[in-house]
Design a protein that fits this description.
Layout (H helix, E strand, L loop, with lengths): L8 H10 L9 E2 L2 E2 L2 E2 L1 E2 L8 E2 L1 H16 L3 H4 L12 H8 L6 E3 L3 H12 L8 E5 L4 H13 L4 H4 E4 L10 H11 L3 E7 L11 H10 L3 E5 L18 E4 L14 E4 L1 H4 L41 H17 L1 H26 L3 E3 L12 E5 L4 H9 L2 E2 L1 E3 L3 E4 L8 H14 L4
Parallel strand pairs: 4-15, 7-8, 7-9, 9-10, 10-11
Antiparallel strand pairs: 1-5, 2-3, 6-12, 11-12, 13-14, 14-17, 16-17
Length: 427
C-alpha cells in the first residue's frame, strides 16, 4: 500500500544512511530476538549498555587489585576525587554551572536530601504543588516529607491535573493555582518530562510563576535528562535531581545526580543533612568535628564515590560529551515524528483506535510517545513483545515507546510499524 512506502525497510535504511547524525548503535549491546536485534524502544526505562562500559569497569577493578587502598590516590582516576569526573559533562547536559551539579546517591535519596533544604513549611505557607499522577516514588517522597513536618498530605499536597477529556497539563492551570493560592504554597515540585504521558512541561514558565508566588521550584528530571535540552541555571530553577540509567545509559542502579542553583550553594543557613564528602575537600582528612561546606552542590554530598557504579556512568557520559545534546535533540525530533506518523498510518489503514496521548507539538515532548490502543490493551503489548519489540506497559492501558536518538534508527521504526500493522489487523 502506498501509505506504507515510507516505512519499507529499504527506505528507512536510506534515511539512516543519509541522516546528519548517524545512530551510534555499533557502540551499544542490543538484546537479541530470533537471531536479530530487538526493536528496543525502552530506553526511557533502562538504556542500552555501552560497549565501553566493560573496559571502564575492568580498569577500576585492575586498579583495586594493583593498589588496594592506595587506589584512592594512585588509581588512574583517583577514587578520592572520582565524582569530579562528571562535573563538566553533567553541567552541559542540564544547562548549569559546574558548581551547581554533583553525581551522588540514587534519585529518590537525592530528592529527599533536597527537600530537607527546600521544603520549609511555615505559617500559612505549607503546601506542595505537583502534577497529578506523578511518578509514585515522587508521590511517596512528597507525602512523607509533609508528614515529617507534621502536615497532612491530603490537605498539604495540591495536584494539577489535565483538563477533563485531555491528557496533558496546561501550564496556564499551574499559573492559575499559583495566582489563586500562592500564599499557601511553599514548594512547586514536578517532573520535567511527565513519565506517563511523555509531556515536557515548560519548566522555565513554571519556575517563573512559582517564584512570583513566593514559592521554591524544583524538578524531577528522570525522564528529561539526556532526552531534552535543559537550561536549569538560565531558567532559575532552585533544585533538581535525576537518575542516569534511562537516557544516560549508565546501567541499572546507576549513580544519580543533583542540581542546586548557585545562589543557594553558599547559603549555610539553609538546612541540610551533611556528611564528610560535603565537607571542604582541602580539610576533609584533618578529621575536624565541625562541618565546613564545599560551597558548591557537593555540599549535599554525604559519602565517598561508588567507584564501580560511577565507572560506567563516566563511559556513558563520554558519548554525550562527544555528540552534544543539540545534535541528539535534532535527531530525536526526526525519529519521533517518523514514529508518530507511522502509528497514524497504521491506525488509518487498519481502522484501529490508536491514540497517542503525548503532545503532538514537538516542543512539548521528548522522544517518548505514549500510546493507548483502545480495542486491544495489554494483548497488543504482548503481541508486540512476542514479535521482538521491547516496550513498556503502564496500567491501566498505556504502551510507552521511546525511539532514543543515541542508538535507535529509522529502520527500527520501520520494523515496528510493520509489526504494529500486522498486530492490529481486524480479527
Amino acid at each position: 500500500m502506498e501509505i506504507f512506502a515510507p516505512y519499507e525497510l529499504t527506505h528507512a535504511k536510506k534515511l539512516d544512511a543519509t541522516d546528519t547524525l548517524p545512530a551510534q548503535r555499533a557502540n551499544f549491546h542490543v538484546p537479541q530476538h530470533a537471531g536479530e536485534d530487538v526493536v528496543y524502544f525502552s530506553g526511557n526505562s533502562l538504556g542500552l549498555q555501552p560497549k565501553s562500559a566493560e573496559n571502564a569497569l575492568q580498569s577500576e577493578l585492575k586498579d583495586w587489585a594493583k593498589h588496594g587502598v592506595d587506589g584512592h590516590l594512585k588509581a588512574r582516576n583517583p577514587w578520592v576525587s572520582y565524582h569530579e569526573r562528571f562535573t563538566n559533562g553533567l553541567a552541559c547536559i542540564v544547562g548549569a554551572a559546574p558548581n551547581e551539579v554533583v553525581a551522588m546517591n540514587a534519585l529518590t535519596v537525592n530528592l529527599h536530601l533536597l527537600l530537607v533544604s527546600f521544603y520549609r513549611p511555615a505559617g500559612k505557607r505549607t503546601k506542595i504543588l505537583c502534577e497529578a499522577k506523578a511518578f509514585p516514588s515522587d508521590q511517596y517522597a512528597l507525602a512523607s516529607q509533609v508528614r515529617f513536618h507534621g502536615g497532612n498530605p491530603a490537605v498539604d499536597i495540591i495536584e494539577v491535573a489535565p483538563r477533563k477529556g485531555t491528557h496533558v497539563i496546561e501550564e496556564t492551570d499551574v499559573e492559575t493555582i499559583l495566582h489563586e493560592r500562592g500564599d499557601e504554597i511553599a514548594l512547586v515540585m514536578m517532573g520535567g518530562v511527565q513519565y506517563f504521558t511523555g509531556q515536557w512541561l515548560d519548566m522555565n514558565r513554571i519556575t517563573a510563576a512559582a517564584h512570583e508566588a513566593g514559592a521554591v521550584c524544583g524538578f524531577d528530571l528522570a525522564h528529561a535528562v539526556g532526552n531534552v535540552p535543559l537550561a536549569l541555571h538560565t531558567w532559575n530553577v532552585d533544585f533538581a535531581c535525576w537518575c542516569s540509567y534511562k537516557y544516560l545509559n549508565s546501567g541499572p542502579g546507576a549513580v544519580a545526580g543533583a542540581y542546586v542553583h548557585h545562589r543557594h550553594v553558599r547559603e549555610d543557613v539553609l538546612p541540610r543533612f551533611e556528611g564528610w564528602w560535603g565537607h571542604n575537600a582541602k580539610r576533609r582528612f584533618l578529621m575536624e568535628p565541625n562541618f565546613e561546606s564545599m560551597g558548591t552542590a557537593e555540599a549535599w554530598q554525604m559519602s565517598n564515590a561508588p567507584v564501580f557504579n560511577m565507572a560506567i556512568h563516566a563511559a556513558a557520559l563520554d558519548q554525550f560529551t562527544a555528540i552534544g545534546m543539540d545534535a541528539l535533540r535534532e535527531k530525536s525530533l526526526r525519529l519521533t515524528a517518523y514514529l508518530e506518523q507511522g502509528v497514524a498510518a497504521v491506525a488509518k489503514h487498519n481502522n484501529a483506535r490508536l491514540e497517542i496521548i503525548t503532545p503532538s507539538d514537538p516542543a512539548r515532548r521528548g522522544c517518548q510517545l505514549s500510546l493507548v490502543a483502545h480495542e486491544f490493551g495489554r494483548e497488543l503489548f504482548e503481541a508486540l513483545t512476542d514479535a521482538g519489540v521491547v516496550l513498556d506497559w503502564r496500567e491501566p492501558n498505556v504502551i510507552r515507546m521511546a525511539p532514543v536518538p543515541m542508538y535507535n534508527t529509522f529502520a527500527d521504526i520501520a520494523r515496528f510499524v510493520q509489526i504494529l500493522k500486522s498486530a492490529t489487523l481486524p480479527h
